[in-house]
Design a protein that fits this description.
Elements lengths: L9 H19 L39 H33 L11 H37 L1 H8 L16
């Protein structure tokens, strides 16, 4: 039997920690380990306000509504962002419910752990539902705009384009 020693780089330490943490969570959760991603943003040495370098990043474009295309773009971007966030929040609610349902009920009630987990995760599920409603309302906003301003939109679209055709000038003989 041959034994190998793990390399002494930082990756093996991280792998050991991940395995240990996963084993701990797996033991506590009864074998269910939800995928959890942790993102750390270090903004200590970045110039500008709040580490942003002077520019704030947003999921939405600037609220400039000087053309129908900008209104459509804003509503579509809002709808897409709200749909994406609603999926993520709904998944988070399910993971939260699964993790919390493994915590034993302090009074030892039958099904008490699942009831408590449902009560807590229900709030996050409602947030996901409201994000989905925000996506619907963003689409409805542009539909209402198109309906209310149909005359202006059609008048602009229906303008006859001047086709420059040579005209006969009778004055020149």
């Amino acid at each position: 039997m041959t034994t190998t020693t793990p390399p002494s780089n930082g990756a093996s330490k991280g792998a050991k920690f991940g395995a240990a943490a996963g084993g701990f969570v797996g033991g506590v959760a009864g074998g269910f380990v939800p995928p959890i991603n942790v993102t750390v943003n270090n903004t200590k040495n970045v110039p500008g306000p709040r580490g942003g370098g002077g520019q704030s990043q947003s999921l939405l474009p600037a609220p400039e509504f000087s053309s129908p295309a900008q209104i459509r773009n804003y509503c579509n971007t809002l709808r897409a962002a709200a749909v994406m966030l609603s999926f993520e929040v709904a998944m988070g609610a399910e993971i939260l419910k699964a993790v919390l349902s493994t915590v034993p009920d302090p009074e030892g009630r039958m099904g008490g752990a699942k009831i408590r987990a449902f009560k807590v995760s229900r709030k996050m599920q409602r947030a996901a539902d409201e994000l989905r409603n925000a996506a619907k309302l963003a689409a409805a906003c542009y539909a209402a705009f198109a309906q209310e301003y149909e005359g202006e939109l059609n008048a602009h679209r229906a303008k006859p384009r001047s086709i420059h055709q040579p005209r006969m000038t009778w004055g020149q003989q």
